[in-house]
């Protein structure tokens, strides 16, 4: 049988016998406020901030809140197994860490600390193209643990090809292509601080360490960092990309490819038609389009459209174990969690990220059991009702 993640609560209570309490709250919705108090306004705003007035980030939480769980009784849940198979990989639970760039603004140990935390708990770590640590270094920190690579699809196809080759060589199994950021959105919290880490050469480590990127520079990065930053800005994203361009990625990546940022069922069908392996139903945590549909509101239609053809994953708004239960019941095979682990990292480094993973999965384990389920495969739409008010 799988590990009983719920045992984390007894570990906490037993530690309490010697007077120890958790260093971070076990209600993960409190982490944002703590981070706001302890970190500078630039880094906090960059991670916590959203597009426009934040309406989409609120819609993500609201779309999950509207669905209420209907627990079932007298079902044998004493042996539980949260393990799943996702994209041909065996995972101990239906959870991965979402890609978040520039993690060095949260903690000096940055991506390596988060990656080690994921590896220690057995959940996949998704490395952002915009990381502050080169992908090879993060891979080394993880040993042979499961890791995925997120691609911000650059304008220069040679740089894209180089990234894919490097990621493959560094043991990243799955490619996660973010489609919803062909340009940066209007983000008032960053704008009000005039704070964009990339312009200071933070979050550019994969580019600045790339031989193809370096070949496009007149001088080495360290001799003219500003020119390197401007070269990066010029190629970071490409609003001209369309569906046929996916063929290039398929040609240069032989593992699973997942498209992140899908909200419309027709786009999900186009992903399947293009030979992709999965989609992440996501609105980038509300960071790209203000006034957008909440991600959980989009999930059922995408599952209905392609659930039999593609692996449907979910992110945007996951904060608790019951949020994960709801996403599974709505048809997602697994979820990606973002901001909570970034807050955990900012507050307590690797240990903070592990705390977030263990809290989420303990709460998921207990929510499943107390609702009458022994694993993540059995919750379905019938286990939820949607509040209309």
Topology:
Elements: H1 8-16, H2 31-38, H3 41-48, H4 55-66, E1 67-69, E2 84-86, E3 89-91, E4 95-97, H5 110-121, E5 125-127, H6 135-142, E6 147-152, H7 157-169, E7 174-178, H8 188-193, H9 205-208, H10 211-215, H11 225-235, H12 246-252, E8 257-262, H13 265-273, E9 278-281, H14 295-306, E10 311-314, H15 321-329, E11 334-337, H16 339-370, E12 384-386
Helix pairs in contact: 2-16, 5-6, 5-16, 13-14, 15-16
Q: Helical region count?
A: 16
N- to C-terminal separation?
A: 41 Å
The beta-strand count equals 12
Q: Averaging pLDDT over every residue, what do you get? A: 97
Shape: globular
- What does the radius of gyration come to? 20 Å
Structural class: alpha/beta
Percentage of residues in helical conformation: 40-55%
Largest sheet: 8 strands, parallel
Strand adjacency order, main sheet:
4-11-10-9-8-7-6-5
Strand content: 5-15%
What is the H/E string? Answer: HHHHEEEEHEHEHEHHHHHEHEHEHEHE
Which spans have pLDDT < 50 for at least 5 consecutive residues? none
Polypeptide structure, described:
It is a single chain. The chain has helices at 8-16, 31-38, 41-48, 55-66, 110-121, 135-142, 157-169, 188-193, 205-208, 211-215, 225-235, 246-252, 265-273, 295-306, 321-329, 339-370, and strands at 67-69, 84-86, 89-91, 95-97, 125-127, 147-152, 174-178, 257-262, 278-281, 311-314, 334-337, 384-386. With 389 residues, the protein is an alpha/beta fold. An eight-stranded parallel β-sheet has the order 4-11-10-9-8-7-6-5. A two-stranded antiparallel ribbon has the order 1-12. Helix 2 packs antiparallel against helix 16 (339-370) and helix 13 (265-273) crosses helix 14 (295-306).
